[in-house]
Design goal:
By secondary structure, this protein is an alpha/beta fold. Strands 1, 2, 3, 4, 5 and 6 form a six-stranded parallel sheet that branches. α1 links the parallel β1 and β2. Belongs to the WrbA family.
Length: 200
């Protein structure tokens, strides 16, 4: 059984909603799941002005936790086509793991959210791949493994790079049923890959 950490940064809850479906898919495939969140770097005063709700009750991930997992799925919103500062700060703290090659050969995937259909979902993954490459982490794309990724009858986030949701600029749109199903399918698919790698 592969142990997979689902690690998120979610300010308004959209990513955490997607993560629930990712976890469901991982467990369906028999993976052991650890659920973590990335530490907030903004002050309570700033978060209040942004009308951010209280954080979810998940443990804060530390770099020292990462070697305990066989693989990781990271979920976070895009910021100008890249990872938020909080995610970057977390990876900036993993230098010790890099020097010891503690994460080399482990698989990782991404899921994400944007405010619009053209908000940079694929760019967010592309600009996050260096985090993985420098550690020797194996990126696992989702591919077009779910039929809803080819559905043009309505707004559907996600792509071959991973599951995604489009939340509107004001955050008013919640993940759709199709987006949640894609996230679940990604979790299941990722677990199968991680299981094969963990067995070697």
């Amino acid at each position: 059984m592969a142990k997979i950490f689902v690690i998120t940064y979610s300010m308004y809850g959209h990513i955490n909603a997607m993560a629930e479906s990712v976890v469901k898919g991982l467990k369906k495939a028999g993976a052991e799941v650890g659920r973590y969140q990335i530490a907030e770097t903004l002050s309570d005063e700033v978060l209040a002005k942004m009308h951010a709700p209280p954080k979810a009750d998940f443990p804060i991930i530390t770099p020292e936790d990462l070697p305990k997992a066989d693989g990781f799925i990271f979920g976070f919103p895009t910021r100008y086509g890249g990872a938020p500062a909080q995610v970057r700060a977390f990876f900036d703290a993993t230098g010790g793991l890099w020097s010891s090659k503690a994460l080399a050969g482990k698989p990782a995937g991404f899921f994400f959210s944007t405010g619009s259909q053209h908000g940079g979902q694929e760019a967010t993954v592309l600009t996050s791949l260096p985090f993985l490459a420098h550690h020797g982490i194996i990126y696992v794309p989702f591919g077009y493994a779910h039929p809803s990724l080819l559905d043009n009858s309505e707004i559907v986030g996600g792509s071959a790079w991973g599951a995604g949701t489009v939340v509107n600029g004001d955050g008013s749109r919640l993940p759709s049923q199709k987006e949640l199903e894609i996230a679940e399918a990604q979790g299941e698919s990722f677990a199968q890959v991680a299981k094969k790698l963990a067995a070697k």
